[in-house]
Amino acid sequence: MHIFQVKFVHNVSANVAVDIWVNDKPLLTNVHYKAISGYYKLEAGTYNVKVYPSGSNNKPLLNYNIEFESHNSYTVIVSGDSSNLSKTLQILLFLDTDTAETKNKALVRFIHAAAETNVPVDIYSGIGKIFSNVKYTVGSDYIEVPADTDLMINVTPANSPDVVLTVPNLRLGGGHSYTIIASGKLGSSEFPLTALLSTESTSMCTHYI
Fold first, then answer.
1. 3-state DSSP call for residue 87?
2. How are strands ordered across the β-sheet holding 73-81?
3. Strand ranges (DSSP E) for the chain?
4. 18-22 and 45-53: which strand pairing?
5. What are the pLDDT digits (tens) for 132-184?
6. CA–CA separation, 55 vs 58, rounded Å?
7. Nearest-angstrom CA–CA distance, 20 and 77
8. Could you give the count of Cα atoms lying within 13 Å of 160 in the half-sphere of its Cβ?
9. What is the spatial distance between Cα 88 and Cα 79, in angstroms, rounded to a whole number?
10. What does pTM read for this prediction?
11. Is there a contact between 200 and 35 (Cβ–Cβ < 8 Å)?
12. Do residues 61 and 96 lie in contact, with contact meaning Cβ atoms separated by under 8 Å?
C-alpha cells in the first residue's frame, strides 16, 4: 500500500477547542489550543480536511482539499488569531523529515506561526544564528544541532538585537527530528508568544486508521 502519515497542530490562539474531520469523518475531537497530535497513517491520495468548533459539525471553520503523497510525513497546522479569524484562519502544510543521520546529532527546523506577528524573524542558539529571515507562515529547512545538549533558543525580529522569545534548556534526542513552532501573539497576556516543540519521530504516538 502507498501510505503517508500526518499529524495536526491546533495553533488558533483562542480558548476554543476544535474537531478535525477527514473525508467527512471525525479524526480528532475536542482538540485544544497548542495541542499536537501523534501521526496518523493513511493511504496516499487527496483528502478533504474540515475543522469545526468542538461538538458541532454544521458549519466548518475551514474546508480544505489536500493531496498527500505516499511515503511522506506531514504536519498540518490549523493556525489563526481569534480576534481576526476572517483574515488569519488557515491551514499550513509542511513536509517532515523523520530522522537525523547520526545518533549524536538532531535535526531541527523553525516554523513561524505566531498570529499577527507578520515581521520576519531570526533564530539564535549558543552556536550563533541558525535561521534567518523566517517569514510568517513559513518553515525553515532542517539543520543539524548537537544532540542531548541543552540549547537556548532566542528569537528576534529579523536584523534586530531585541529578543522577543526565549526557549531555555532545549534538549533534543540524537537521531531524531524536531520542529519549533512559534505560537501566540506578541504583547498578549492571554495568548503570549510561546514555542511549541513537535517531534517527527515515527515511534512516538503513531496511529493507524
1. helix
2. 90-96, 73-81, 3-13, 39-43, 206-208
3. 3-13, 18-22, 25-31, 39-43, 45-53, 62-68, 73-81, 90-96, 105-112, 121-125, 128-134, 143-146, 151-157, 165-170, 177-183, 194-199, 206-208
4. antiparallel
5. 999 999 999 999 999 888 889 999 999 999 999 999 989 999 989 999 999 99
6. 10
7. 11
8. 11
9. 7
10. 0.92
11. no
12. no
Reduced to 3 states (helix: H, G, I; strand: E, B; else coil), residue 18 is strand
Cell of 94: 509542511
| Total residues belonging to the chain | 209
pLDDT in tens, 64-107: 999 999 999 999 999 988 777 777 889 999 999 977 777 899 99
Burial bucket for residue 118 (CB in 10 Å: 0-12, 13-18, 19+)? exposed
Rounded distance between C-alpha atoms, residue 46 and residue 175, angstroms: 31
Specify the residue for cell string 497546522: 77
| Phi, psi torsion values for 10, nearest 5 degrees | -90, 105
Q: What whole-number percentage of the chain has pLDDT above 90?
A: 70
- As a whole number of angstroms, the distance between CA 67 and CA 197 comes to 25
